[in-house]
Amino acid sequence: MENEIRKKRIFSGIQPSGELTLGSYMGAIKSWVDLQDEYDCIYCIVDMHAITVRQNPAELRRRSVAQLAQYIACGLDPQKNIMFIQSHVPQHAELAWILGCYTQFGELSRMTQFKQKSQQHADNITAGLFTYPVLMAADILLYQADLVPVGADQKQHVELTRDIAQRFNGVYSDTFTLPEPFIPKMGARVMSLGNPANKMSKSDPDGCVYLMDKPEDIRRKFKRAVTDSETAVKFDKENKPGVSNLLTIYCAATGKTMEEAEADFAGQGYGVFKPAVADAVVELLRPIREESERLIADKAYLEGIYREGAQHAQYLANKTLAKVQRKIGFAAR
Q1: Which CATH number does 215-293 carry?
Q2: Containing H/E element for 140?
Q3: Are the C-beta atoms of residues 100 and 131 closer than 8 Å to each other?
Q4: CB atoms inside a 10 Å sphere around CB 183
């Protein structure tokens, strides 16, 4: 079986450091659903990455399991995808230590996200925050992933992963698949409702919509969304970033083209436009929220999914890790 031609493998993960957002869904998870028949997909809840910043332990546990429920509610089929919690597969940490010994200090110090997060958490700049990209490299290389769906902010990490893999392969012969960044065609880049210059972030409760938000909360957030002093509903990212963001969300929620969306609101002001976008998002998220709530109540089912996922992931991870250990000279276990 292992020698058969396999589908290309995709690896991706989202931190359970906050509630999943509309941006998470439209920019990543919705695209993942479209990939599950064409690719061999591994989707991880990266709780080990989450602790580079202090977390409430009870909340981290709750969100890790709730995030799995939301993955499934969004359309990810547990029978087609490997889904698991990162800390349940200790091979991630073990390979990260080994790869850290093949990563240069200068490479890590140039990581844009480290610089940004160091400013945001100046009182808690840990070694984990600094070596975060090495763990990310281990996540990807452990499964011999061909493709990694990423946004522009994570592309640098995939490039570092390739550099580490090439360095290791150069010393010990081909060991790791060199992953390519993969930007799904349909992924919508959703910006903050309060500041459309910034990406929608789970750390900005007023500027983002969460998947589990109630309809009344969604409508309130869109009512407050930043637009401009004009009234024309048209896409102009440079001069009308707020309206352009709402149009992008409307198109992603309804499946309409930008031309169709602009035609829907021709001659109408923001008083009609903003509630219409809110209604489209409410209806998009309603089945996801309801199915998530049903799944979260079924703890035994979710536990079965993440335990089985971890077992499958460990089987794949062990194959890579054993090869790495042998090549670097560790004694056989």
Answers
A1: 1.10.240.10
A2: helix 127-141
A3: yes
A4: 13
Determine the longest span between alpha carbons in the chain, in angstroms. 74
Tokens of 225: 């969304």
- Report how far Cα 171 is from the mean position of its chain's Cα atoms: 32
CA distance linking residue 86 with residue 9, whole number of Å: 17
CA 79 – CA 222 distance, rounded (Å): 36
Amino acid found at 76: L
Domain ranges of the chain: 9-188+299-328, 215-293
Tell the CATH topology of 9-188+299-328: Rossmann fold (3.40.50)
- Consecutive H or E run containing 42: strand 40-45
The first and second tokens of residue 148, run together, are 């990694």
**Mind listing the pLDDT tens digit for each residue in 80-125?**
999 999 999 999 999 999 999 999 998 998 887 777 777 776 777 8
Q: Looking at the annotation, which residues are catalytic?
A: 117, 199, 202
> Can you give the three-state secondary structure of 230-267, one letter per residue?
CCCCCCECCCEHHHHHHHHHHHHHHCCCHHHHHHHCCC
What is the pLDDT, as a whole number, of residue 1? 40
* CB atoms near residue 20 (< 10 Å): 23
Beta-ladder partners of 240: 236
Q: Which residues pair with 149 in a beta bridge?
A: 182
